[in-house]
Amino acid sequence: MFQRLFGRERHANRAITEALYGQIVAAARQTFFYSDWNVPDMPLGRFEMLSLHMFLFQHRLHGESGVAADVAQVLIDEFFTDVDHSLRELGISDVGVPKRMKKLAKMYYGRTAAYADALERNDAGDLGAALGRNVRPDVAEWPEAAALATYVMRARDELAAQPTATICAGTVVFPAAAG
């Protein structure tokens, strides 16, 4: 037991978690989203893209059991820990962080339900509408929503083709947004 908590296995698991989370963050930070598809390059826009990529990762592992389910849980925990840390870096007080975290968690899970529903029906129109409502609520119409919906569907398909064992070993590959 002691060896599992403090030994090599714990360090290997942390390395896998960091590798996967880093790949998710890198996918969410593709400059194309912000420069060409007009995702707001500000904290809320970056939260939306990170949430979207975390959703895609979680969607890929949904229904898996064993190690894959454990990896999915560890990564969602890592995501919310990162969001908490980011709020604190933005200067939100210790008193205000829990309230904001509750709101952001509600936002995340609301989005995942809408995105999952549209993906299950393979409905690019509904997916684009949901993305538009969430990523660019400040504009009446966001023409780039359709392109982002196409990207999300392509990412879903490419993630589905990746072996679970490869993902659980620390490698997940998202498509390039500009492709």
TrEMBL record:
Origin superkingdom: Bacteria
InterPro entries: Ubiq_cyt_c_chap, Ubiqinol_cyt_c_chaperone_CPB3, Ubq_cyt-c_CBP3-rel
Domain Ubiquinol-cytochrome c chaperone: start-end pairs: 36-174
Pfam family, one: Ubiq_cyt_C_chap
Coiled-coil ranges (or none): none
Signal sequence, start to end: none
Similarity-based family: Belongs to the UPF0174 family. Belongs to the CBP3 family.
Protein name per its UniProtKB record: Ubiquinol-cytochrome C chaperone
UniProt organism field: Mesorhizobium hungaricum
